[in-house]
Amino acid sequence: MVKMAGLVGSPWLRIRVSPDFAPPLLRSRLASKPYLAHRRRRYLSASASSAPAQGEVRVRFAPSPTGNLHVGGARTALFNYLFARSKGGRFILRIEDTDLERSTRKSEEAMLHDLSWLGLDWDEGPGVGGDYGPYRQSERNFLYKQYAEKLLDSGAVYRCFCSNEELEQMKETAKRLQLPPVYTGKWATAPEKEIEEELVKGTPYTYRFRVPEEGTLKINDLIRGEVSWSLDTLGDFVIMRSNGQPVYNFCVTVDDATMRISHVIRAEEHLPNTLRQALIYNALGFPVPSFAHVSLILAPDRSKLSKRHGATSVGQFREMGYLPQAMVNYLALLGWGDGTENEFFTIDQLVEKFSIDRVNKSGAIFDPTKLRWMNGQHLRSLPLDELIEIFGDQWKRTGILVESEGTFVKDATELLKDGIDLITDADTALSNLLSYPVLSTLSSDEGKPIVQDKLSEVAASLISAYDSGELREALEEGHAGWQKWVKSFGKLLKRKGKSLFMPLRVLLTGKLHGPDMGGSIVLIYKAGICGAVNPQSGFVPLDERLKILREIDWDALNKGPDPQPESVATVAH
Questions:
Q1: Minimal CA–CA distance to 275: which of 237, 246, 223?
Q2: At CA 246, angle to CA 245 and CA 247, rounded to 5?
Q3: Pairwise CA distance, residues 324 & 310, whole Å
Q4: Which of 46, 125, 222, 380 shows the smallest number of beta carbons within 10 Å?
Q5: Angstrom distance (rounded) from CA 41 to CA 25
Q6: Residue 107 in this model has a pLDDT that exceeds 70
Q7: Predicted pLDDT at 168
Q8: Would you say 96 and 85 are in contact if contact means Cβ atoms under 8 Å apart?
Q9: Which of helix, strand or coil describes residue 53?
Q10: Where is the Glutamyl/glutaminyl-tRNA synthetase class Ib catalytic domain (predicted)?
């Protein structure tokens, strides 16, 4: 294999042409007009070789606004962004909206929002401008027509008047003879008189690109190494449809060339397009950029990641409560690594360490469990003030709280943050704390041993401590007051450790498990007096919890299933 091209090099397509092999009809014209050697020709070879790059590194991300930004597209954008920033180059955003039926501005706006949310700010493109615009393909038709005419004048393309029926017949014939389905029509070598006759009749025509009849084309992909294609299997291909609309490969080539793109970093599914694009580059006299084709992102079952595997778009992950920095970190690791065991990077660190030669050419597995875990690590590494703001906004937005800041928000964040991996988990964590499912807990299999350990006696003493004001006074003092009270309460009951703390947790929180018990009970008490909690949130205040405890039939609980309806413990207050 040929050594991969260096990052500062740019492959140029070099094609050796032999006019002697031209059809008789054209031979005389080639002698007087050498540029028409592009007309029907036979290539001895075609290859991309390395030449010095001109100017700065310029890369682009070119999504089609026909849906949401897929995580695969986001990773491609990220790799382009990191490559540009690491080389001091430019990151260009171009919208490929030539599919007029499927492209929408709504989809485009959503994609731009997702890229901005990820922190992938573009240097040129929609909303930013630049020297090489317009940056939407739908606004660049004048360029495509200009370059199509240039190719027609040079003889690199020709008008093809074949009907759809004729083309289908060619395909059927090739299939029957077990030959590649290449164009074999007459218009590649048709006399000018026949062409003029069709033009006069107004017969619809396409523009077809003249492909070498034999030889190979090679590129040195920055990720995959040498890639080659046999030219005799391609056939002359259409670059402009009969309705005047340019074909994808032609648009992309003209856009990349005129925007002076130096490196094309894109998904491996575009690798087959490189052959056509490289031929067009050469015919137009433009340098061929360096190519790097990134592997697909695979689902855990190693199939292509799709909607059937769950969330696949950046917008979905944002709505699910993921942080942009966690998404960027995780996406960067799908096929790339810095050669160490480190898995946690800020975007600035990624820029510093990123290199295209460390991108793996094999498929990367998308693991939602690892992404969630990584998000939790990033979430908990945020400064406390930032975390308080994030959780406070979330709790107010979802209606659990009526205010997004204050002492209660701060205390709730500090208490609950270690059990939260996603921003939306904060809702569940706080709602669980505010709820009081004590009856279902006591009647559960796990709760039975606690009930049978004379829980009714602990409940009676707890009710007494609350009625006397002793417990409320302790909670007013916060965590220190709670600890002091628990110690004296344990001595009173002659209990300590688990035999003390587990009954208190169940009686006061209604649950067997949860965050720090003291912090939980102090926060429950504050929730009842601070005014921050929405009355419609399902919160059961401490007063109501003690009321429920008074009404429990402990004898019935000790004997069998809970005789009371669960609604008693979850009534709205």
A1: 237
A2: 120
A3: 19
A4: 380
A5: 12
A6: yes
A7: 83
A8: no
A9: coil
A10: 56-373
Which among 203, 197, 168, 201 has a CA at the least distance from the CA of 184?
168
Question: Which of 218, 220, 225 is CA-nearest to residue 361?
Answer: 225
Q: For residue 321, what are the domain limits?
A: 307-383
pLDDT tens digits for 53-67?
Answer: 457 899 999 999 988
Q: Which amino acid is at 241?
A: R
Evaluate whether 42 touches 18 at the Cβ level (below 8 Å).
yes
* Phi, psi angles (nearest 5°) of residue 380: -75, -10
Ordered DSSP codes for 505-539 = HHHHHSSS--S-HHHHHHHHHHHTTSS-B-GGG--
Please state, in angstroms and rounded to a whole number, the distance separating the CA atoms of residues 110 and 70: 11
Q: Which two tokens stand for residue 566?
A: 């669960």
**What CATH number does residue 350 fall under?**
1.10.1160.10
Looking at the fold, whether 343 and 449 belong to one and the same domain comes out as no
DSSP, collapsed to helix, strand or coil, labels residue 223 as coil
- pLDDT tens sequence across 295-342: 999 988 888 787 676 668 999 999 999 999 999 999 999 999 999 999
Tokens in use for 564? 């009371």
* Distances, alpha carbon 569 to alpha carbons 106, 140, 462, 554, in Å: 47, 66, 18, 15
Tokens representing residue 475 in the block: 């909670």
The angle that helices 498-509 and 517-527 make with each other, rounded to 10 degrees, is 20
Q: Is the pLDDT higher at 366 or at 3? A: 366
To the question of pTM greater than 0.70 for the whole model, the response is: yes
Rg (CA), the chain: 35
When the pLDDT of each residue in the chain is averaged and rounded to a whole number, the result is 86
Residue 366 belongs to a domain: yes
Which amino acid, 568? Answer: V
Based on the residue annotation, tell me whether 307 is a catalytic residue of this protein: yes
Cβ pair 248, 102 in contact under 8 A: no
* Dist CA 283 CA 277 (whole Å): 10
Q: Which of 437, 296, 424, 272 shows the shortest CA–CA distance to 366?
A: 296
Question: Of 366, 383, 400, which closes a domain?
Answer: 383
- 174 shares its domain with 312: no
Is there a domain that residue 127 lies in? no
Residue 97 φ/ψ, nearest 5 degrees = -110, 35
Cβ contact 85:77 at 8 Å: no
Residues in the chain: 573
Among residues 175, 186, 307, 448, the one annotated as catalytic is 307
Residues 390, 395: Cα–Cα separation, whole Å: 9
